[in-house]
Structures
1.
Amino acid sequence: MRTNDSKGKRVRFADEEVVRGQGGETHQAASGKTPTLTTQQGIPVSDDQNSLKVGARGPTVLEDFHFREKLFHFDHERIPERVVHARGFGAHGYFENYASLAEFTKADLFQRPGEKTPAFVRFSTVAGNKGSADLARDVRGFAVKLYTKQGNWDLVGNNIPVFFIQDAIKFPDLIHAAKQEPDRGFPQAQTAHDNFWDFISLMPESINMALWIMSDRTIPRSFRFMEGFAVHTFRLVNAEGKSTFVKFHWKPKLGMQSVVWNEALKINGADPDFHRRDLWDAIQAGDYPEWELGLQLFDEDFADTFDFDVLDATKIIPEELVPIRRVGRLVLDRTVDNFFAETEQVAFCTQNIVPGVDFTDDPLLQGRNFSYLDTQLKRLGSPNFTHLPINAPKCPFHTLQQDGHMAFVNPKGRANYEPNSWGEGPRESPDKGFSTYPSDVQGQKLRVRSETFADHYSQARQFYKSQTDIEQRHIIAAFTFELSKVEREAIRARVVSHLLNVDQDLAKAVAKGLRLTQLPPPAEAAKPTRMDLPESPALSIIKNGPGSFKGRKVGVLVTDGADADVLAALQQQLQREGAQMILVAPQVGGVTASDGVWVEADEKLDGGPSVVFDAVVLLPSSDGAKLLASEATARDFVADAFAHLKFIAYDEAAQPLLDKAGIANDLDEGCVTLKTAADVAGFVQKCRQLRWWEREPKVKRI
Ligand code: HDE
């Protein structure tokens, strides 16, 4: 922003008031409401444009404390990223309890209907670094911090209800294998590489999770459209000391939805921040995402009769067997003020539980209880990370812990120990305090895996069999894609040898996709696969469609002369549906519609490809359509929407564009003409199916 104007003169640059500095450069005026820039010590700064020098062209002097402090602080801005779940996005909200759960738990937040507990949620991918793309095929973290009146409760979950491993001692191996290979530092945020599949194929316990991660669950359309699970079995304990086992679920009010793989690849290029932007935009627009908290409650007797060990985190309890009781809702209604202070510094610890909730002996959970506290010290640099506003409880708290780096919540008074005779300081409370559930434990100290953890394939089969044909095809395609990136054929074959224990057709289809010349023998199994587990429809995304287009986006491709009546009808119908209309124009700014009125566009065509929308409308004028037909990005807009099975509505004027996009002869029931504004309602109604899956076999032949 250099100018040649005279010094000190006030000028206007766009809508920002600036004032010229001594060197002709400009800076914001420190006048009126603008605070004066200071150093960290509060000393007002007179010049933030030039370092202190000897003469105009001489060396910089060490004495320049403002310059040195500024660079020193900048040099130390980065903290270690999370060793897993490095890329995340958080938001504030609240949990609202529906009814008293006193029968099961004395946890304060569940006692009173309508009670609201402040919450912070951080969603994340697992394997990628902080700067990786949002649409990686990966598990999503779903970590919830509930600031209850009895302290913080962290439910640090994922969007998949099972995990890869049964014992925490294998976690470093799993993560080493999943992240970039150590010699080359790539691939980034991808499991499609030798090390990952080598590990998986040598750890049969991970096969159930492998099925889940190859399903569409790992390419969610949005954080708003995915489920969450705390995975482990926990306990609820009531005031009488009675314990009930519990599995925690988060059910999205908007229903589940995923993208298709080719779309995911393209979204990563078009908008690597797709998921975080989606959440940010929804909250900013007042369209607050919600999940219901679901509990699967069961007792010791059920646990003893269940086919699998409830302490084994590689297993689920099907909803059909133990129904989910919805007990409250989580609403995210506030974006963060500062990404670093909140999303980056938030420290979840599975050990943070409240009276009325307790752990079980799940060996994965037990290991996590060590790891999370430990990692926060490394990441946040001090045991006082709990003093940070995002981590501090919102209820009164009194500890006798003291000092350490960055201690800024400090006790007053003389007594920093207890018992003491000064009559000062906090004391323990046997009534109110957290008391561990006195479960019976006995046995020898052994490094063993329980026999009850030995069945690795039955639930993998159940998951696969519970999917629709479409979803099964996606699982086959995902395995084939990932394994095609694996260089060693022996590893590919080893994965197929496990799939043979899951489902013959699945294994054969993947082997065919990989062009394996012969099928490997099935992997040795400690326990034979149970073929009789009933299907669980709850495990399928498609079987549980929301039947609504709420919260989704339609990209409307317009040019000058776009039909104003149809535009108005679209705007009205989508608003009624709770969906959004995004106008995409050839140029930034907007277009003049058929009624001569200027309409603002939201996106320029090459910044708003169809992959970032749930459905599209092609609304060019005849001249506009001819122009777009000769534009590669416009042809991609249409061809991709078709290939990604989206609903497409088009004005007949768009015909040249359909021709050039190569879909004119393939139009199907997912494509509708908008002859008049009245056709709009029919289109929006169709969109409630989210995708026109019938098209898939025609556009995906291999
Ligand atoms: Fe984590 N995990 N994890 N994990 N995890 C971390 O803690 C760990 C596991 C999950 O948004 C780390 O603060 C071990 C299961 C989420 O800040 C670390 C084991 C589930 C997040 C850690 C597991 C999760 C983490 C890294 C095997 C689903 C992100 C940074 C025993 C139920 C939280 C951090 C956020 C983060 C350890 C397995 C979910 C190293 C040892 C199972 C959502 O402590």
Note: Residues 1 and 13 are 9 Å apart (CA to CA).
2.
Amino acid sequence: SVTSLLGPAQIRELAEQAGIRPTKTLGQNFVIDAGTVRKIVRQADVVVGERVVEIGPGLGSLTLGLLEAGADVVAVEIDPVLARLLPTTVARHLPGLERVDDEPTADGAPVVRLRDAEGHDRLTVVLSDALDVHVLPGPPPTALVANLPYNVSVPVLLTFLERFASLERLLVMVQAEVADRVAAPPGSRTYGVPSVKAAWWASARRTATVGRSVFWPVPNVDSALVRLDRREPPAIPVTRGEVFAVVDAAFAQRRKMLRSALAGVAGSSEAAVTALVAAGVDPQARGETVDVEGFARVAAQLAVVAR
Ligand code: SAM
């Protein structure tokens, strides 16, 4: 088993040895607190032998926590220095693993695996921008667990929910504000595009607040954990693309009533009113009061007219 998780001293040492200077543009704030790592792993309900995808493993804080819990991890990292260092760090903590330099993925991303004595893969490192990953090596993952890079956290969530239908659960650490937006119910102040789009795929709730001191370097925002559980999309005959186009239009001008906000996608304000009424949504309402089912009904009405 893992002898220890990474603390402040080990994180600094690893960064120093590898010559890593954390960059803001890649959201590189590394977790230096084992308690936070264990909380994330616990809230993800990771089970032994489960295939888990981690985005942005960084120096390996969370990766080691996931491996300690018995998960097999496929980790996608954009920074080549960090991706190269990760198998070495993990091999040092989990003795007996053999390193295999694998074929690139179908997306062309380099892959390194660590397998145990039985030939079973415990860690697979994919060097890539997560948003460019369309295929993951190995068995389909059932959970995504990550301390997400803040600048791409919402796109990563939505992209992985869409591309990897095998994902049942996601437990991610994001900027506190983003957590609020993703988990917001209709009618609340923070309800917006990320809330509706996340609700198309999953039910989301904010499960914890995380202070700044668990990171190195210390970020200038608070963080929070969000748990998403996949659900069936609304049972309405409409595509994801049609619904999301209506959602984007509805929130593009936040203060506008839906009848004018949707005039563009509907063709005219009159057509928007007809579709809204047929969908059972008040044309005078604003986007922030409509739930994902409401948007799906409106999109279905507009799609019927367009056909
Ligand atoms: N998981 C580590 C931890 O908890 O200490 C690091 C988390 S750090 C907030 C975000 C990580 O995501 C960094 O390692 C960064 O290099 C990586 N990253 C940033 N943008 C990425 C992207 N588009 N695709 C994959 N990894 C990315």
Note: The CA atoms of residues 60 and 86 lie 6 Å apart.
